[in-house]
Amino acid sequence: MSDPVRDARDELKRAGLMSDDPDAEVVPDVIARSWRRSISSNVASDAPAQLYREIDTESILLRAAEPVLDRWQHQLTDTGTTLFVSDRAGSIVARRVSDRTTQRRLDGANAAEGFDFSEERVGTNGLGTAMVEKRPVFIQGAQHYNDLLSDITCAAVPLSTPTGSVIGAISLGGLTKVTNPLTMSVTREIGQQIEERLRASARPEDLALAMSFMRYTNAQRPTVVLDKESLLANTPGLPFVSVSSHVTLWEQLSRHQWVEGEPARLELTEQGVEVVARRVLEGPHVHYVAHFAQLQRVHDLGGSRRAAPVAPKVAPPSVVVVDGPAGSGRATRVRHLHEGRPGRGPLAEISATPGVAWDELRAHLDGGTDVMLRRLEDLSDVEVARLAAIVRDHRRASTSGERTTLLLTTVDSSRGSEPLKDFVNRVGVTERTSALADSPDSIPGLVTEILERVDHDRRHTLSPTAMQALMSWRWPGNVSELVDVISDVVARVHSSVIERKDLPVHLQSVAARRNLTVLEESERDTIIRTLADLGGNRSEAATRLGIGRTTLYRRLRQLGIEDDEASL
């Protein structure tokens, strides 16, 4: 006998996302929306959940949830129901099973700790769908998108921090024959008890952020409220925020020279965004309210607005020179310039080592292939003269229309000979790159680009404090060193969020931006070593150091040793 709910799901999969919704009497709207999201994410309807990451037993979510789960597990003994908690990424971080039969059934569907039950991976399910919908959901049997969950019914509610951000979800469910709609009332009660524990452990700073958020936001203007650890955004502000933009914005606002009563105006040119921000002082705590707007080619002149004049199109140069220290992203910048060139040809890369294949370079330019000639600082004076002759011929051929190709070069003119410096001055520098230590604001964008190249599954992001550690390091190896660090971390870390503790040790202990006293430096090193010895367990570290846990958290912040999981 066919199941009308399963038939409706299969028909939606066959007809596609542009088809009409299933009959609302058979499939509730919340389920139909979730099915559509599952289809658009290409979720398999017959595959078990996949192992996601190791569980952080010291996370603020688990610290709040575990006492509540233990208490309710005792009350739900022999009911055939199971309690689940997932983190904000959808990974199950806690499970309380009431009997072994149910446990075996759940294990068969990988409904267990460490497995990914986000909606985009498993499809419609209590934990994942409650977080996406940001409201309680009740999912019965065949309403699950995954066939392996078709005999399970569950109630789920999202779990929110005092600042209103969803930190995870709680679900209570079991085999359909032993559950009933009253499960939702119990689930709500459990969720409220966990949220109450979250409120009790919340930072006063988070509550201050929440108050400013309510005071300064409205439904239309893109707005965020942020401090170093946390960020709140209204719906229009969501497209403007990420880990990278949070860290970049915090760094810029912290360094801004504030004048009492005057807002700050910043341009995040890489994002094409203008920011108008104000500073909010709540006792010793400082946070910022930022309003966003897309940069427009409109100028305000004497109260009237007029469109900025459009610059005339200029023919692209036939020779490009990117000047900067080795490892500062010169080649990456050249590739960007090449990719942005209309009608570009393929790009051949040649190193300016002794014995450059000049004939090969000429052949590429004649044959329609653009050329990147790297590290001109390694050329001898004789080879610089030969390059100058090739550039003269290439420019002449380009002007006459014989060639449309581009010669792109990288150079560190500060390390070059006098003939090379003269050559660079005559040709002209197209763009300059700087040492990474001199441009920390560029690091978030570079990290995004590197992740796109090395993280083939697109699973990894960096936590704010991990990004802050990268921005505080001096990077003697420049961009090349950053590429090596990110590549290594992606290969080693299986969780989707790369925390500060996942970085190499020298980056975990990177000095705070403010100058520390000798005594503070010693204390900082002792805390870092203790945390490393104990695998990051802060409770045990506080005990070994002979201080209270709250005192340890305060010193972590004061000494610039960020505690990723302690942040809401």
Average pLDDT level? 83
- The helix content, as a percent range, equals 40-55%
Give Rg in angstroms. 29 Å
CATH topology of the largest domain: Beta-Lactamase
CATH class of the largest domain: Alpha Beta
The fraction of residues in strands falls at 15-25%
- Please identify, by name, the CATH architecture of the largest domain: 2-Layer Sandwich
Number of strands: 19
The profile of the biggest β sheet is: 5 strands, antiparallel
- Find the structural class using helix and strand composition: alpha/beta
Give, in spatial order, the strands making up the sheet with the most strands.
Answer: 2-1-5-4-3
In DSSP terms (H or I, runs of 4 or more residues), the helix count works out at: 20
What is the number of domains? 4
Shape label:
globular
N- and C-termini, Cα separation = 49 Å
Q: What would you give as the CATH superfamily of the largest domain?
A: GAF domain
Low-pLDDT regions: 297-315, 563-568
